[in-house]
Design brief:
Layout (H helix, E strand, L loop, with lengths): L1 H36 L4 H24 L4 H5 L2 H23 L2 H8 L2 H12 L6 H18 L11 H17 L8 H20 L8 H27 L2 H4 L5 H14 L5 H23 L5
Helix pairs in contact: 1-2, 1-10, 1-12, 2-9, 2-10, 4-8, 4-9, 5-8, 5-12, 5-13, 6-7, 6-8, 6-13, 7-13
Length: 296
Amino acid sequence: MIKILKNNNIKGVLFMLLAAFFFSINDALVKFIVKEIKNDNSLFDVVFLRGIFTSLFILILIFLYGNFKFKKIFYDKRSYLRGLCEVLAAFTFLSSLMLMPMGDVYTLLNTIPLIITAIGALFYNEKVGIRRWSAVFIGFIGVLIVINPSNLKFGPIFILPLFSAIFLTMRDVISKGYKDSSNSLEIIFITAVLVTFSFGIASLFFPVDFNITNIFYILFASAVLTMAYLFSFLTILYAPLSLTSSFRYTGIVFAIILGYFFFNEIPSINMLIGAIIISLSGLFVIRREKFLGKID
């Protein structure tokens, strides 16, 4: 029994690493496609077309891994609220991805554990001790180091990934209401549909003509994103969040590497120092949450 548990935990960690890797690859592909088209407004059209393909792929996964239940997916109001947070997060995240280096975006996005702790204390009256408050404070010092207010190269654009982190935090808070992890694919599907619909409306104002190469890359990005969703789903099935959540920070490493090779984005010293501080602070918060039994 212990051997099986350990094997499942190892699988869960591996699936989390693969999910982080494929999410990073997908983001790099979307940025690459938009830059190839040489029109930042094409982001809406790219994400819309990617969303159509991805939604179809996820629908296939639902039929393969479980039973498709129409009411379960479309009649749960929490799914729409969660989807709205995901839409807002997608707009702010992808916009920042077009305008900033991938490493910076991913670093600021990984303030989520710190924001969750702060929101829990301020709005939900959760007891947060001096150690976790210290970690939150130090983490946001890391944010200031990344942003570097004395030399704001990207100006207020830095706000976008932070807003994305806030919206994703709200999404995660809503997700706590889902007690059955078996409906993860259904939740992902309704989210994908809502994001696709939202970007589809936006794309009407910025029409773009795709060539065959663009469509091929978008289809590839859709397949990669579906793989990322699948591995994140398998992570939930095989291992507890307390074990796998800390491995999300590998996304920063993947983003730095992909940003360098795809877009010649060389990370600054400020970004590297800030990334280390934010990651260590977030890992400490996760460790304390696990110790206090707040993470299952």
